[in-house]
Amino acid sequence: MGYKGGFVHYSQSMKRQDFNKAHGRCTKSFKDFIQYYEKTLEPEVFEKFLSSVDHEINLARAEIMSAPEGIERAKKLQDLVETEIEKEKNIKISCFKGCSACCHMEVEITNYESEILAKLVENGHVVNRDVLKEQSLRELQDKKWTKRLTLPENRCIFLGSDGACSIYENRPVMCRRHSVTTPPINCETMDSELGVRFFPRVDLLITAANEDPKLRIGPLAKMLQMELLK
Ligand code: SF4
Q: What is the spatial distance between Cα 8 and Cα 196, in angstroms, rounded to a whole number?
């Protein structure tokens, strides 16, 4: 049976420590999701739930790893993520084309996604190389990213002058996953209340993809610059 994208009822049980050992690269949101069920379910029900999640992660990992490493594997994950988000399209999201505050934040991508982006640039997609260089020198979670959003120096190099992503079809998984439910104006400042939609199955997919031993994760500009300089 292949990955179906749901937490199917699974009659087996799994101990928490075994789950932690098997899936040590869960996303932070996915860890929180599991902890929520740990607190709210009876222990024996929780262990069945864990077994289901383990089963789904293993299926998803096998599906993702069936694609050759590199661009094809990144595309595979992106397609699976899109399918999961599409299933939830009834949930009202306030993001719209042209609101771009989130494109002024640090975005993490994988080494496979950096190959996609580098290929676009090498094939003529114009980006500001000076901005790319400056952003690529920033450390992970550099303080510069946490200044007021919409600062010009924090614009993603792929953000077009119209406020839309210039590589929308190729945007990284982290950009696809970011969906806000609060009014767009709240995204303009760092201290407003922000509701971010959590898609458990998207985080399950990212968790499964993270288990690829050849996968590396880092800030977009740094990863892209490294790929371009190879
Ligand atoms: S890649 Fe596109 S969607 Fe992602 S941060 Fe950059 S401009 Fe925004």
A: 25
Q: What percent of the chain has pLDDT over 90?
A: 69
Whose alpha carbon is nearest atom 5 of ligand 1?
103
pTM score, two decimals? 0.92
Could you give the CA distance from residue 213 to residue 103 in angstroms, rounded to a whole number?
29
C-alpha 123 to ligand 1 mean position (Å): 18
- DSSP H/E element including 218: strand 217-219
C-alpha 168 – ligand 1 centre gap (Å): 7
Instruction: Judge if the beta carbon of residue 132 lies within 6 A of ligand 1.
Output: no
Q: What spacing in Å lies between the alpha carbon of 33 and ligand 1's midpoint?
A: 26
- Residues ≥6 apart with Cβ < 8 Å to 179: 85, 93, 95, 196, 197, 199
Does the beta carbon of 156 lie inside 6 Å of ligand 1?
Answer: yes
Nearest Cα neighbor of 113 from 172, 159, 175, 69 is: 172
Predicted confidence at residue 185, as pLDDT, reads 82
Instruction: Quote the mean pLDDT of the chain.
Output: 91
Give pLDDT tens digits for 122-159: 999 999 999 999 999 998 888 888 766 678 889 999 99
Q: Is the CB of 157 under 6 A from ligand 1?
A: no
